[in-house]
Amino acid sequence: MDAFVINGGNTLGGSIEINGSKNACLPLMAAALLGDQPITLHHVPRLADISNMLNLLERLGCSIDEHDSGDGRSITLYAEDESLSLAPYDIVRTMRASICVLGPMLAKRGEARVSMPGGCAIGDRPIDLHLRGLRALGAKITLDGGDVVARVPASGRLRGNTVFLGGAFGPTVLGTANVMSAATLAHGTTVIEAAACEPEVVDVARLLNSMGARIEGAGTPRITVHGVESLGGAEHRVIPDRIEAGTYVLAAAITGSRLRLTNYPADALIAAQDQFERMGVCVRAADGPDADPLRRTVDAWREAAVRPTTVSTQPHPGFPTDLQAQLMALACLADGNSVITERIYEQRFLHVAELSRMGASLFRQGSTVVVSGVEQLVGAPVMASDLRASASLVLAGLAAEGETVIRRVYHLDRGYEQMEQKLRTLGAKIERVDERDLAPVPG
Ligand code: EPU
Prior knowledge:
This protein is α/β, with parallel strands linked by helices. It folds into two domains: 2-19 and 241-437, Enolpyruvate transferase domain (UDP-n-acetylglucosamine1-carboxyvinyl-transferase, Chain); 22-237, Enolpyruvate transferase domain (UDP-n-acetylglucosamine1-carboxyvinyl-transferase, Chain, Alpha-beta prism). The protein is 29% helix and 27% strand. The chain contains 14 helices and 24 strands. The chain has helices at residues 22-30, 48-59, 89-92, 102-109, 128-136, 173-183, 199-210, 242-254, 270-278, 324-331, 350-357, 387-399, 410-413, 419-425, and strands spanning 2-8, 13-17, 39-42, 62-68, 73-79, 86-87, 111-115, 140-144, 147-151, 162-164, 189-193, 214-216, 222-226, 234-237, 258-264, 281-285, 296-302, 310-312, 337-341, 361-365, 368-372, 381-383, 402-407, 429-434. The strands form six sheets. The protein has a four-stranded mixed β-sheet, with helices on one face. α1 (22-30) runs parallel beside α7 (199-210), α8 (242-254) runs parallel beside α12 (387-399) and α10 (324-331) packs parallel to α12. The longest helix has 13 residues, at 242-254. The model has no long low-confidence stretch (mean pLDDT 95). The structure holds uridine-diphosphate-2(N-acetylglucosaminyl) butyric acid (EPU). The site of uridine-diphosphate-2(N-acetylglucosaminyl) butyric acid (EPU) has 25 residues, from α1, α5, α6 and α12.
């Protein structure tokens, strides 16, 4: 396993490009299962989760062609063999997002068997809403040997219906993508109420519409899908990753640096931008007024001391849970007390104990953490435990005095492409090493 060794405390500078979004890409890739022709996705990030998804699609009969089209990595996917319908446990257990093949496979092949995703470090992540939505479209769903087995009704096709997809923690992102994708090939019209409004859902709808689907309202809480007989192929450029973008803004802020970010999805980061401003972090356009609001060039820097904040994570357009850990790293250095509440995954606080090892002053009660800002973080050996918690430790390590060693960075590799290389081009002192080459952790 790899680890990062960071020598913190120095200022960064320069420019980096934001990648295509991992969380958009996964359901976009699954849409290949719906079409009769190949789809080509541009700007696909090189990440462990994307490789897992490619592996799964190959097991489901898709041919894969990867090429460099001058627009990042491009991947063409074509569902050549539709006789297969099993998403096995050995892949699903490496990536919960495998569940997003369920809707497309069911709608197109009439049957899908997807291993039920198990527990997750950031909390319970049930799929009841996915199943409720597909059942509303007429699917017969059973559990067999740990697999979810779904079949279309005897008519051979799903049928449109009105379905409420809100749950105790709000709407579901991948659940919305699943039901919306399945409904494209249903007989009749589907209305998804309490749909997730995340930009990734909008991106999936955009691809499906260019394949011939008739989806209206994506990006709002009510999505209407008029079923069509078949879908064709399409070419699509994946939206930039708003969470990667927000993480690099926070890297500029925590190190007191000025960074230029290109391919920056400003329009998808308005709640985050509001938090950045409150904490004294500036993000300003460096391009013209006609630039695509999802692909801007911006400069990010911090003007003065970090100001404390109060924030609750919420479904989009609220502040994203996927930036909570990274924002907390910055709040650790604020001039006062911040209050951070997690409302999507109440247990998503694996970074709290690790940040405390670096000198942060944190008090957690339930789903809220009170962060008392300290003057300085200090380097320490810490453990990455989930993707975004790992990113927060990298940010803390960049700002800390001395050496921080972060073990188990494979979590980070799931969602950040070559983070250490990007940071090194900005002047950070960060190395990837084999954990076996590190001195043993004392005790
Ligand atoms: N939920 C249910 N029932 C369901 C589905 C979800 O109760 O059937 C609950 C969840 O437990 C959670 C809330 O609803 O409390 C929202 O979960 P959601 O379904 O929206 O999450 P997801 O679609 O599985 C995606 C991202 C996550 C991100 C969440 C929330 C992907 C691959 N994953 O997950 O990203 O945190 O939306 O925005 O798109 C990450 O990138 O680090 C990550 C975890």
